[in-house]
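FW: tagging you since you asked about this chain on Friday. Here's the raw sequence from the shared folder, copied in full. Didn't touch anything.
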Amino acid sequence: MYEDKTYESILSDAQDEVSGNVLKTEGSLVFNALSALAYEMSKLYQQMDYIINQSHAESADLEHLILICNDRGIIRKTATHAYVEVTANVSIPVGTRFSLKGYNYRITEETDTANHVHTAIVEETGSGANELTGELTVIDHVDGLNVATVTKALILGEDDETKDELYKRYLESFQTGSFGGNIAAYKTTVNAIDGVGGCKVYPVWNGPGTVKVVIASSANGAISDYLLNQIKEAAVPPEKGTGYGFVPIDHTVTFESVEEVPLVITTNITFEDGYTWSSTKEEIENAIKSYIASIAKEWMDQDYTENVTVYISRLESKVLDVAGIKDITGTTLNGSTSNLALAWNQIPTFSEVSLQ
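HL: got it, structure written out here
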């Protein structure tokens, strides 16, 4: 806003205000006085420009955007812990610690005493351990323990919310008011739960007072039964019943995981000289996964009346952006040459890609 208020322009304006009978060239007393004043005033204008920018969500940096959002009751999401399933040959005491590939795990409960199935928390926050499985290294000794293995993720860890993600939530807060029992209230509450990436809410889906909430994970796929049960308990606490959780008294709510539709892709690719399928396969897969992730984000922004479609032309366009790809033709999705339109409660996931 004050880009024109530079040291040079302020000094020039100040010199113009001084009588022509007074010596004001560089090195004179008047010039030196005005120069010092212009320098300090230019800093004030820079600070005023900074303050104005930080007072608006669109131009604010992350620190000040957080403050603006706080005033509206929107709290930045910080990194969360992942929870995983651990199987072993014996029961493991709560609090026992293990490690796997630089991450530390701590047992929080035993969920199946007969089969020695446990839940463990990843002590480090963030998404880094979400895809890790395998045999754990013991930190704390346990009598009789021969092997303990991470078998799957139960709740995915999430990274700190980015500035763009927070700004998007800020803008969305102006579109639909969130109040008890409406769609916006359900979406706000469910999306705030650790491990949830987004959801769709279907009101009156099976008669008056009924609601269906379909939930996707923060990794753009189905959620685990463990997380689903946690959501159900937060919605309607088993020990108290309806009205004590976030579900309104007059609602009967069904919570479900989104249904994954794995994509098996076959195609014909012409490579440029020096490139082969083996040298480009990983980048091709990453390009396809990027496109599928964008579809998942689209799903999370929709309501129950909408669905997503996997377009072959857009998928091919992503692959064509990979270095070494000259042309791509004859692409099929799950054996079909047609675009794949999914139901409102379905989301695509990557399975495999191969050459015909």
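FW: The longest strand covers residues 259-271.
HL: agreed, and Residues 29-54 form the longest helix (26 residues).
FW: great, closing this out.
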